[in-house]
Amino acid sequence: MPASYQPETRGDGDEQKSVSQSLETNLKAAETTVRHILDQKGGEVISIRPDATIGAAVELLRDRKIGAVVVTDESGALTGILSERDIVRRLADTPGQTLPQTVAELMTPDPQTCAPDESLVRLLRRMTDGRFRHMPVVEEGAMIGMVSIGDVVNFRLTALEYEALQLKQLIVG
């Protein structure tokens, strides 16, 4: 008999078990949406103006520890997105001359967006097919968050860990 096995005794199961996760908080991959990620990470949107310099954008990315920033006009409307990848490409094209350039010169105009009710499976497919790692989340014309491919992967890994735990509990009993 394994040393870790302990037979049930009278009174076992009388105490309440605590559960850190439940079926309600861990949905199947096909049912999870962008909103589930935003509920966990929050909806803060970091933005920059198109007339800001790339130097200012680089500092913002570094200080906020993010890989992309949305570009908004004076009214807060989405006009583009600027990623680390955009900056690196321009650094290669214009060495020593990139930081004074404006965000408008490097940004991707009119970026794709997603809705909070979009499934994570569909979002991941769109991001993979489009070869981009960040997507603004828009609801009723207003930005309510930003989702990265890392957010999607992390959410799915957490769900897989929970599924593995459930299987272990089924096996052990």
Automatic annotation (TrEMBL):
Pfam families: CBS. It comes from the Bacteria. Residues 38-98, 107-163 form the CBS domain. The keyword 4Fe-4S does not apply. Keywords: CBS domain. Residues 1-22 are annotated as: Disordered. This is CBS domain-containing protein. It comes from Salipiger profundus. The lineage of its organism: Bacteria, Pseudomonadati, Pseudomonadota, Alphaproteobacteria, Rhodobacterales.
